[in-house]
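re: ur question from earlier - yeah i can do the single chain one, its not a big deal. heres the input i used so u can compare w yours
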Amino acid sequence: MKSVIKKIVVKENNVHVGLMQYSNNQKMEFNLGLDTIDTMLNAIDDMVWLHEGTYTGKAISQVSHHFSATYGGRPGLQQMLVVITDGMSSDNVKDPAEELRKKGVVIYALGVDTNNTQLLEIAGSRDRVYSGRTFNALKDWENRLTLEVCSRACSTDEADVIFLVDASETNKNLRQFKSMLTFMDSIEKLSAVSKNQIHFGVILYSNDAKSVLTLDKYNPKQGILNTTPLTPRRGYANTGNALEYSLQFFSAEHGGRAANKVPQILMVITDSISPNDSDLRRASAALEKSGVIVLSIGVKNADLAQLTIMANDIESRAFKADNYDTLQSHTKDVFSVFCPLTKPVYEGPCNLVFLLDRSSSITRDDHKLILHYSSELVKSFNENSVHFGAVQFSSNPEMEFELNRYQRMEDVIEHISKLSYTGGDTNIGKALNFTQKVFPKSAANPQSLVLFSDGSSLDDVEEAASYVRDMGTDIFAFYLGDISLLQLLQITGTPENLFAVNNFNDIRPQAISAMCKPVVSTGNCSIDIAIAFDISQRSGVFNDYKLKLQASLPKILQYMSTVGDLCCLKQKIVKTRIAFQLVNQEGHFEEYNEDTLTKVMAQFTEPTYFNSALLDSFRSMFNDKSKANVKVVVIFSDGLDEDVMDLHKASEQLKESNVNALLTVALEGAHDPNQLQSVAFGLGYYYNRRFSVTMVNIGNALYNLISAVSKTACCNIMCVCVGNEGLGGSRGLPGPKGMPGEKGVTGFTGDEGIPGSRGPPGPEGAQGITGCQGPRGVKGDRGVSGEKGEIGVNGVPGTDGIQGLSGQNGTKGERGHPGNPGMPGVKGDPGSKGQKGLRGDPGELGTDNTVPGPKGEPGAEGLPGLTGPDGEPGDDGVTGHPGLDGKRGRSGEKGRPGPAGDKGAKGNPGAPGPQGRAGNNGAPGPKGLPGFPGHQGAYGKLGEPGRGGRRGANGQKGQPGDPGIKGGPGSKGARGVPGQDGNDGHGPSGSKGVKGDLGFPGYPGLPGSGGDKGTKGHVGHKGNDGQWGLPGKPGPPGTPGLIGFKGHSGKPGPPGESKSKCQLIAYIRDNCACCNDSQCPAFPTELVFGLDMSQGVRDESDFKRQRDALLSLLEDISIAESNCPTGARVAVVAYSSYVKYLIRFQDYRRKSKLIELVKNIPLERTSNTRELGAAMRFVGHNVFKRTRAGTLMRKVAVFFSHGPSQNPEDIETAVMEYRGSNIIPAIISLSNAPKDRAAMKVDDTGRSIFTLLGRQNQAASLSRVKNCAICFDPCRRTVECAFIREPERDDVGSR
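and the output i got, formated as tokens:
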């Protein structure tokens, strides 16, 4: 909140701010009448948290009263409410917010980790909803709201305005007539009225008309309502006659200023229907011929078509209020059109170049819109007053036609319409550099560059745009698509030159008035700066401080005297004069030079005191010797020399004498710099910043301050947004070597010098020639072994390497057995007590003063103190009143298990809950720098075991800790899981084992082999016949035989029974017990509805007819509540000349939620035209891009239209595209549109349906669309849909 308040200009005649805090109840912190920033910021700092619950709806109802004049509100001005919440409201927010929006208050909803549905109900539009998980996520909202507030300000220039008020008693009572007068009074209060600005007149009419206030009799101080009595008149309204009557009162005889080219405007306010349109058209044409602009405002019974006729068929100048209570809410709409009309039209020559984007960042359809709106801008200028040129760009810029190539406006428009789309990269910076060659280098006429783009450039734009603006060229940007607002602001240099293409018709008058402005002469702005030096606090060091000051002043004054680059001026440097105020010396304003400074510092021999007398002398100096637009006082001081309260009074008197700013700069060692800052004024965004002569960039800071003050005074800029100070630039290249100086005069011969000291040794000489090799010497004795060297010092340990990249997460391992807790470590010894510090130097004695000083800045948070001893228990208090129910507390600790209860009966299974909507994935934040490891804290008491938390992210590897003391042996662990069998191995032979026990008897062995043949025995006696033996076991199967040869082919069988698609569907329906024959739609369907929100839909009643018809169609439709291929998925869009998503296919899978949202769709009024064909093509190309798959999936698009489309040929194109994409279109028109009906007949299959929605029998009108488009079953055709000639498909299956 504080950041937004600092960025906007809070003044009596500008922006007012109020603040309410709420919970169960509301607390108004300050009302709208408070107009000092410091008071507001202090009130915000003193706010106390209210606790309790969240009742947003109750707070909205209460705050609505504070927009009235009783609490400081200004009902005629734009009113805005910003709701900031971080919780779900416990009451209804929809109805209170809707009531407040009906009064014309624009509501913004900011939510932190809260319900987006409630935020949408509060704001009424997704464009005014901002949400995030933390308050830091809403940081960019500050700039958006500031831009919104600043862009809504429009100041009127000059105009002759006459109100033509319908005062007939036929259709209204006295209260309703007064509401018309209140509306007229609001327009007057919003306008700048004076002798040289807006003049007003009033004409009342019924059967006849009578002028009650002429332009020359208007008194700006009294106002219209206090100048003359205004009462109703008898009879009926004759508007045509009144229009003809009003023309004579714009003449010079009655105070008209048409001869001075002052715009003349007639505002008609009526609630009646004129009996004859021809009278209106004839009178309006006569007014237009005389240069009078007509704005028509209708109430209740007034006819919008007649209002448009009065406005010379310009729909944006005709307004209609449903009743007298809502008339006041149209003030801002009327004023937004009225204000630009008061700007003078520049009729001299002007150079205007279009810079058009044709890169791949915009679509081909967007490129067509760019060409269309460029042509509309050309039509808005007077013939032969503007020279046009055009450049298109993508990867590279290309010159389409130069300035002065075409002399006729028709030739310019024809060339623009033929420009082609190429695609490619978006290099706006390169294109801006190219335009420098297009404009003449020295042009006395104004120059404007008009950019159409989305602002998403791949190269740098800031430097190129700054160079173009420095050439004296104003840059305007019309944006569309996925915009980059920051780059667009870098290009234009100001938010006032940014315009949205989708609001083209609304902002066109404002844009035209801003382009081709005449060059402002240099004499319109001048700056006078008065400077004083206060060195009075330090006795005996006056000259030392004077020398220090004299060394730093030249650079500071050089900055202060080169103020320039003001947005409303062409010259680089604004004329700046400087005067010095010394004791007993009368200062004079003159241009700065170093000789003047040297002369002043020589005269500066006595200290100057910072007191009321010094400030009064500045007031006299400016009154007697300065006529500059900007007056600034700069005082270099070492501290105040008078009571601060007395200096505050003197400072206020200096401010009231039209001095723009008082700047104080603290000298080195100044006494209490905060008090110096408290008496300054005019600091703007620097109001809380101290300035010191020891600052490195003090000259630049003072330059920025004086520049901001100059822009406010000379250019009438209300919002001067100052960004953070940039980083210092890189060191510049060394300058070129200077020319050698002139040869100096030969000096005198010096005295003979004393002998010098011995010089250092000379350099080593070159190595001599190597001599001859000598004879080989005798071999020496073996040397004695040397002693063992000492052990070397250990090397310094290497530094830790940089942290490696995090490895990929490993697979989840098996859960191990929890180990036993280790022994607690030994408590470390306490550190030694530090030595007592040295005693500090004694401070300077303070002066006696009973006046309390200003509130100091809050000190840094101290270290937590030691825990104090427990206090003695107090006496039992008196039982208080029972408090309000508190919020639900945290869950208590788990209690002990109770006794087992009786087994209950088995419950019925619950219904499955609805599947929640998947949230959008947030953008990944930038990876932060790794923090330093903290000191290990002392061991706390052993806490109770907590619940198992989720596994956290892997932390950075810590530094190795000191080895702990070896713990005692742990308890024996549980038996481990048996390991897997190892591989077979061969170990060494073992020792012979002990003889084992006897084993079990073995199985019988195999029969032995036959023995040797014995001798032949004697023949035995014949034995008895034996019994038959048992049958033997079957033998094993034999091996399979070889595969035989392939047999002859048989005769072909009879053909199977084939089925068509419809027969197959009928077969399934007849044999499926779960199929519902009466379900609508019969097949799975993707269904899109388009609602008309174009310029023609001005009444809530007309939009309500569309919404009621849509709800009627949804009543009997089965909505798909899962991914199963059944029922209908529904999407809803709004269209005018562009399309906006309201409900997407995936948003709602519950019919009740879908119908509730459709009921809450509000009408968003706009002045954009009705482009039905373009909307149909957008739906076909984008909305149906992702549909469910399936052979029987149907796609249906139903569009509501309030009247004829702007381009019926686009509907024909859309219908043919729909036929190729198998999409069924239907148009439900609220009024007759024969061209649209004919365009739908281009589809000879009859599937494209056009129907007229009657007021009497609405159900019959919708039946055709419902039964023959949405619920149409091609396999069960009805008589109602016999006109559809859809050919049957090929057979899809057989029995």
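The first helix runs from residue 2 to 7. not sure if urs matches, ping me
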